[in-house]
Design goal:
This protein is of the alpha+beta class. The chain contains 16 helices and 15 strands.
């Protein structure tokens, strides 16, 4: 008698939230409606003398965390306003691991005392929580599997040429045949809109007004925006293709315009699109020179001259950037040919003499021959060592296979075997490097020698197209110090920076 009284008292102090959920997603097609769930749960509560603290109705998918009403209910349970939940099935509470784990955690902390389901057995015991976690896992698996099946079905529709989404304006989704058909009332208006814009005399806003006057508006009964009209005009759906997954696919639906009309519209869109101003191409001498009067950087400008006879001439001018706040620079621009002529005269004094170049070439040929001979001798010796090591390893393996040595002795020799294999691998790598790069140093030296001998002639070629010398980039190769040397050839107008290249101070 006493035990039953305590049980009745414990039942009386449990306050339940009725939680009802039904989303519009596919996984809830077979679930009772919200009204039917409420009726069944109230009847279940009345039959079992449950005290209801409130009814929570939510119309949102439980695939991902973030349901507002569910989170509010859990916060109220943690605050002690209720300590029980009544729902139709565990999948109404959670279809993801976060919400399911939250419920089980509150059961462990005794904040949540009871869970009741008309279609599922649960008791707040270790076995009951295990079965509840299995139900949550099964609900999550159902959603994940359904998602994979849905995506697979959509990909199959795309392969069949069926657009797996809502049809654009001018078409209708035929629910009975699960296909897309032409909207006989709106399709002619869409075709007319394409034809109007292809003429080149109408703007996007004019097309939007035309469509609005003929009943094609947004869901809020407003004219289409310019972006919506542009998206419609760029949509390949109207000539028989469609975009899906970032790719264009051939569709089974009937096109209402010809591809040529669509191409003309794209040409007009491209012509009227926002044109970015072309950026000036970086000139080779920018960053190398500084103004001799104000010490500011030198920049270049390209000028294009169109003659009446149709000839086009391009000119490049170098000038001071005039960014000094203390000195007012008075230097005038200079053409690139003039500047290159002066640089050639300066560089001529740093070019490698011809007789020195011939002598260096002869010395390099001798060094190359000596390197080939020495590397060939080393490779021959190294290959003989590799053959010897391979023979030792093979003899050790053969003696073990022929049972000349027992397993204990063979294992004792494994350390020696590992040492031999390591030595063999090291020598093989040395042979490979020498074979591929025995004379690898010769070609770079030849190139540097040629560049030194032809330093000045490189600048005589057309503007910087055959600059064999890679001019320093001031953003990558910073100046070595801040020295500037004046040159009389520039008339005091320009100074050339000193750069640190390949461990050599090049002061022009």
């Amino acid at each position: 008698m006493g035990g039953s009284t305590i049980q009745v008292m414990q039942t009386a102090i449990i306050r339940y939230y009725i939680y009802v959920r039904k989303s519009t997603d596919v996984e809830d097609k077979q679930v009772l409606s919200v009204e039917a769930q409420i009726v069944e749960l109230r009847k279940y509560a009345a039959d079992n003398n449950m005290k209801i603290a409130g009814v929570i109705i939510e119309k949102q998918s439980a695939k991902t965390p973030g349901r507002k009403k569910f989170n509010t209910m859990m916060s109220n349970v943690e605050a002690g306003e209720a300590n029980g939940i009544l729902s139709w099935h565990p999948d109404r509470l959670a279809r993801n691991s976060v919400d399911g784990g939250h419920i089980i955690y509150l059961l462990d902390q005794s904040r949540l005392v009871a869970l009741k389901f008309p279609t599922f057995w649960f008791e707040n015991t270790s076995q009951g929580k295990f079965m509840l976690s299995m139900a949550f896992s099964q609900s999550k698996y159902y959603v994940d599997n359904l998602s994979e099946n849905t995506k697979r079905g959509l990909r199959q529709k795309v392969r069949r040429g069926e657009f797996p989404s809502k049809a654009p304006v001018g078409y209708i989704n035929d629910v009975r045949h699960k296909s897309i058909v032409v909207d006989k009332r709106r399709a002619p208006l869409i075709v007319k809109a394409f034809e109007m814009y292809a003429e080149g005399g109408y703007r996007l806003i004019d097309i939007a007004e035309y469509l609005a006057n003929n009943g094609i508006k947004t869901g809020g009964s407003k004219p289409l925006s310019k972006d919506q009209v542009k998206h419609m005009l760029k949509n390949p759906f109207y000539y028989g293709h469609f975009w899906y997954g970032g790719e264009v696919h051939e569709g089974k639906h009937k096109g209402i315009i010809e591809k040529s009309l669509h191409d003309r519209v794209q040409a007009v869109l491209t012509q009227r699109g926002y044109k970015r101003r072309p950026k000036n191409e970086p000139q080779a001498l920018c960053g190398l020179l500084a103004c001799g009067e104000c010490n500011m950087a030198i920049t270049a400008e390209k000028k294009i001259k169109h003659q009446k006879n149709g000839n086009v001439h391009e000119y490049v001018y170098y000038r001071c950037t005039r960014k000094s706040k203390t000195v007012r620079c008075t230097q005038k621009p200079i053409t690139e040919p003039e500047l290159l002529t002066q640089l050639v005269d300066i560089l001529q004094g740093y070019a490698l003499p011809v007789d020195c170049a011939i002598e260096l070439t002869s010395m390099l040929d001798k060094d190359e021959q000596q390197a080939e001979q020495s590397s060939g001798a080393f490779i021959t010796e190294a290959r003989s060592k590799v053959d010897g090591l391979q023979a030792k390893l093979q003899r050790l393996l053969d003696s073990y296979l022929d049972q000349d040595v027992d397993q204990v002795t063979y294992k004792a020799k494994q350390a020696k075997q590992a040492e031999l294999m390591s030595e063999k691998k090291t020598i093989e790598e040395q042979i490979s490097k020498l074979t591929l790069a025995a004379n690898a140093w010769v070609e770079p030296v030849f190139r540097k020698q040629k560049s030194a001998a032809l330093a000045a002639p490189h600048f005589r070629s057309p503007p910087c197209k055959s600059l064999g010398l890679a001019m320093p980039n001031p953003r990558k190769n910073r100046p070595f110090g801040r020295k500037f040397l004046r040159k009389s050839d520039f008339g005091g107008r320009y100074r050339i920076r000193t750069y640190h290249l390949n461990n050599v101070n090049v002061a022009l």
